[in-house]
Amino acid sequence: MARIGVFVCHCGTNISKTVDVERAAQAAGEFPDVVFSTNYKYMCSEPGQNLIKEAIREHKLDRVVVAACSPRLHEPTFQRCIACAGLNPYLVEMANIREHCSWVHEDKVEATEKAIDIIAMLTAKAKRDEPLFTKEIPLTKKAMVIGGGVAGIRAALDIAEAGYKVTLVERTPSIGGRMAQYDKTFPTLDCAACILTPMMVDCASHPNIDIWSYSEVEQVDGFVGNFKVRVRKRAKSIKEELCTGCGVCCEKCVVKGLDNPFDEGLGKRNAMYVPFPQAVPNVPVLDRENCRQFTKGKCGVCQKMCPAGAVDYDQEDEIVTEEVGAIVVATGFKTWDHSKLGEYGYGKYPDVISGLQFERLMNASGPTDGKIKRPSDGKVPESVVFLSCIGSRDPEHGHAYCSKVCCMYNAKHALLLKDKLHDAKAYVFYMDIRANGKGYEEFVQRTIEDYGATYVRGRVSRIFPEDGQMVVRGADTLLGKPIEVRADLVVLATAMEPQDDAKELARTLGISTDQYNWFSEAHPKLKPVECLSAGIYLAGACQYPKDIPDTVAQASGAASKVAGLFAKECLTSEPMIAYIKDDSCVGCGLCAGVCPFSAIELVEIVDRAKSTRENQVMRTVAKVNEGLCHGCGTCAAACRSLSAKLRGFEDSQILAEIEALANIKIG
Amino acid sequence: MIEETTEQTNTETWKPTILGILCNWCSYAGADLAGSSRMKHPANMRIVRVPCSGRVNPLFILKGFQMGFDGVMVLGCHPGDCHYAKGNYFARRRIMLIRELLQSMGIEPERFHFEWVSASEGARFAEVVTEMTANIEKIGPFCGVDCSRTPSAF
């Protein structure tokens, strides 16, 4: 006979508002094997947990049901709680009467009834809970950081500083990411390169960090502490160990005038190139799609000119499998391709550009050496219009969210424009100004008051060229009047979006994404940097639009999580895994066939029933490799003799949950 | 037992009862999201959490009907999103057979529903529950296996 205690939580008024918690606790007291039931305002608080611990001692409880929030939120909390009172932590069940009941129903009678049903189900399951035991598993104390932007760099440096090895994988030829493209950063107007490039150099010179640039993650196997990551190191056509970074190959390359993505299409590069002068590693990459040696089959100029003999046309992609214990995902964002929105003419009129392009125009190492010239004719602009919320806060174009940084970089661009060209006019069209960081509001005010940028509240309906200028037509919603501004240059603050292959990477990693394909954290407040898959952490704008301070803070947070994980001697395995009952297993191998992790194999055992002392008869049964089993239970559903079982989710437990509501009728 | 249920069912006060079997990583999380986003939906479903839709033994579905639920729903991760790589594919194959089995037993196909709901689809979850409840309301209470509906060849 089990002795079950049921603890119904009010969750402040979150539950008690729609569920009669006293009635629920009272009803639970009547369930079979329940010897104690009560309710309390905050079961997860210290007094709440003490109440549970005392009840366990006083009433000699051996199973606990907490009727509160989702098990995905506080199950670990209550597992620790009952473990303190001497019970096996796996003898607690959570009846989810908040997310699945009080928050989604309005009728108190109906919700109370449902809550009682939920408690009945979990009580029936708890009755059949068995103590489960974790095992110690080894841990590889090496991390992988995917993405070499400022988030990945910060995370890699922090993990390396904590004393652990890190492999930093970057898709493009150089680390640096978006921040390397920027000129200045708000609100301090620090030069982006002056902050970032020393960090890039630190990364390259740190003994604990390996940078794999021009490389991509292809496959991830394993689990926390024991990931196996397959990375494709794409052929740079350069022997890195010989290259001195002198740049002769790039200079002498005969294929010129290719668009440099680093300059957002405003600058050009050769087929042999480094994306920008401060690149780390400072090793050129040969763009084989455009190289004459590869397209025409003859050229060889770079190979002849290279003083170090480092150019290697026969180099092949290298596939490396790296074993790591933790992964930090820091793959960043891209900006929305605004040419999809015809009325603003991006992609059609050269003088309608994106914020990132304006950033390159201002950057001292950009295509114009930092001189602001408009792309069409190189004229220094006398008036520039900046438009906010291009695609952001716009569900019709697939981004209901705010891109968070645009208000601030619009202000920054307007300020820097006025700073460089005192007589130029800066207009900022905005919906609302969202300046919610340290020093942000002051910065916007400074742009308006000290630098004289004109802020217009309203949307622009149309942009078209006239007499060598762009006519920006819209409405000033504060004055309630139409407005028309003639500008030499129009800058669009386009929405931030997840990378195109974010969904694919999420699948490779086994993590989830939200409806926009931003990576999902395990919990927005309790586990903001962790993924639901243990051992994988998030940093930066791959999770949601973030500015640099937030990105860097999160990267350090992810790094500290990795360091915390690696500080352990070994990990404990999840005990909710499959096992096989030898006595009824017929060795058909169905379970082995469906196991997604190849964790089941067929083995020969001695058939005790048929064996005699002289004659040993063998038979085949399935066996679970506990190190590989993830606990999905597909085998348990496939087994025809009910011999494959899943701890924590036994057939008997699930059936008991369903049976608990025998002849259920609502109302 | 089934006859008793039929007698107890007062058609005027009857409300559909649905058993939902949800995978932990996607659909249960989607239901949680519907909760934390306060997306109201009918209170007719009772949820059983399983680690993966691949864990769903056809027995669970039959047990649901046996226990008098008017409808049974299995929700899992979208194809390609399974936390266990491919458990949902096995679920999908099994569900195809279960559908046939239910039909051969004379259980209306509308009483059983299989759907992908991801962790980010709280609204979808609420929608699925609402639709299912409305569908069951339309076809009425489940009064046990109706032999006249089983195919004659069976």
Task: Give, in order, the helices and strands of chain B.
Answer: HEHEHEHEH
- Pick out the low-confidence regions of chain B: 1-7
Shape of chain B: globular
Question: Count of helical segments of chain A?
Answer: 18
- The separation of the N and C termini of chain A measures 32 Å
Compute the average pLDDT of chain B. 87
Chain oligomer state = heterodimer
What is the approximate shape of chain A? globular
Q: Could you give the distance between the termini of chain B?
A: 24 Å
Brief write-up:
The complex is a heterodimer of chains A (667) and B (154). Chain A is built from 18 helices and 34 strands.
Give your account of this protein's structure.
The complex is a heterodimer of chains A (667) and B (154). Chain A has 18 helices and 34 strands. Chain A has 667 residues and is an alpha/beta fold. In chain A, strands 10-7-6-18-29 form a 5-stranded parallel β-sheet. A 5-stranded parallel β-sheet of chain A has the order 20-27-21-22-23. Chain A has a 4-stranded parallel β-sheet with strand order 2-1-3-4, sandwiched between helices. In chain A, helix 1 packs parallel to helix 5, helix 6 crosses helix 7 and helix 12 runs parallel beside helix 13. Chain B has 154 residues and is an alpha/beta fold. The radius of gyration of chain B is 16 Å and the shape is globular. Chain B has 5 helices and 4 strands. The two termini of chain B are 24 Å apart. A 4-stranded parallel β-sheet of chain B has the order 2-1-3-4, with helices on both faces. Classes of the chains: A alpha/beta (667), B alpha/beta (154). Chains A and B meet through helix 3, helix 4, helix 5, helix 17 and helix 18 of A and helix 1, helix 2, strand 2, helix 3 and helix 4 of B.
Defining key terms:
heterodimer, A: 667 residues, alpha/beta, five-stranded parallel β-sheet, 34 strands, 27% helix, B: 154 residues, four-stranded parallel β-sheet, 5 helices, 40% helix, globular, disordered N terminus
